[in-house]
């Protein structure tokens, strides 16, 4: 009994310490900190794809303001395990929480008050399985929590929500096991055009049995299907950042995605000014990845011990 109790405690500690939130925002090289994020009430995940919380997380606070971004410009979302902790030596999301990074946008009348579960979303960036056991979350960890992408140049000017998401797959081998970590940012887009992207809703875009959500991380996989629609591009082609070992959901185009999104690295400094640099997949560069995988089967082993 004591052994089972200890195993349960270890599982809880390992799981909670690895939870994370998207909490900062960059416009180009300008650090906007948390001035335009709806910060969730905790770093715990959403696990139900049918809950309204799947849109912008549970109990998210109102954002302090709006960030101004140019259509066609680069922005970055930033994830860390604890609020206000931007230490680059700590993984952005640890504990073998492997999975894709996905970003959506939704045009709204008033980003300050718009309800995420009522918004119409289109996907603008994604990074899934890069190579075996190397995921979009590894790119976050090696880039001090940052994921950089481009605002489509053809979308209309106005106010938008940006939904940044990680889907952690470490216990996704059974229905309801996948963990969704998301935050919504409030922005004003300037410039742009008149494109009208196809949209999806949250809840509604995902099913608990989608192949990219019900997924055995320990099952000898060779490919991964990123959930949701194809990435919207102004040219109409299917785009995104992925490796050849990732595949598109059957409901979307099977066309190979061009690598149009960037992974960006933030230099760690004791100075209050944070420098950033980008490695673009489309330019032939290869993102660097952090320390080798640690405790790959940690949570699965603890579950087994608990079952005993």
Range of strand content: 25-35%
Instruction: List the helices and strands in order.
Output: HEEEHEEEEEEHEEEEEEEEEH
- Strand count: 18
Distance between the termini: 10 Å
Q: Based on helices, strands and strand pairing, what is the structural class? A: alpha+beta
Number of domains: 1
Low-pLDDT residue intervals, each spanning 5 or more residues? 1-15, 240-308
Estimate percent helicity: 10-25%
- Biggest pleated-sheet summary: 6 strands, mixed
What name does the CATH topology carry? Coagulation Factor XIII, Chain A, domain 1
Radius of gyration: 18 Å
CATH architecture: Distorted Sandwich
Biased composition (Low complexity): 243-286
Catalytic activity: [(1->4)-beta-D-glucosyl]n+m + reduced acceptor + O2 = 4-dehydro-beta-D-glucosyl-[(1->4)-beta-D-glucosyl]n-1 + [(1->4)-beta-D-glucosyl]m + acceptor + H2O
Signal peptide: 1-18
Cofactor: Cu(2+)
């Amino acid at each position: 009994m004591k052994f089972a109790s200890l195993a349960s405690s270890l599982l809880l500690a390992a799981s909670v310490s690895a939870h994370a939130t998207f909490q900062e925002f960059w416009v180009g090289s300008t650090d906007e900190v948390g001035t335009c994020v709806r910060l969730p009430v905790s770093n715990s995940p959403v696990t139900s794809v049918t809950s309204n919380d799947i849109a912008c997380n549970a109990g998210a606070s109102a954002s302090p303001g709006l960030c101004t971004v140019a259509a066609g410009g680069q922005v970055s979302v930033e994830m860390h395990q604890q609020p206000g902790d931007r230490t680059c030596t700590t993984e952005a999301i640890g504990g073998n929480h492997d999975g894709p990074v996905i970003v959506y946008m939704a045009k709204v009348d008033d980003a300050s008050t718009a309800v995420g579960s009522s918004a119409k979303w289109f996907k603008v960036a994604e990074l899934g399985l890069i190579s075996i056991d190397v995921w979009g979350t590894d790119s976050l960890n090696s880039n001090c929590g940052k994921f950089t992408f481009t605002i489509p140049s053809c979308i209309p000017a106005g106010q938008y929500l940006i939904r940044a998401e990680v889907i952690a797959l470490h216990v996704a081998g059974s229905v309801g096991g996948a963990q969704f970590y998301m935050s919504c940012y409030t922005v004003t887009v300037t410039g742009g055009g008149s494109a009208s992207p196809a949209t999806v809703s949250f809840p509604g875009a995902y099913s608990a049995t989608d192949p990219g959500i019900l997924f055995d991380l320990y099952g000898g996989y060779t490919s991964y299907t990123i959930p949701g629609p194809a990435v919207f591009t102004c040219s109409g082609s299917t785009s995104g950042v992925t490796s050849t070992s990732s595949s598109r959901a059957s409901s979307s185009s099977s066309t190979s995605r061009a690598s149009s999104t960037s992974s960006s690295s933030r230099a760690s400094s004791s100075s209050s000014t944070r420098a950033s640099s980008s490695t673009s997949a489309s330019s032939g560069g290869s993102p660097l990845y952090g320390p080798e995988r640690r405790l790959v089967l940690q949570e699965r082993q603890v579950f087994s011990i608990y079952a005993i």
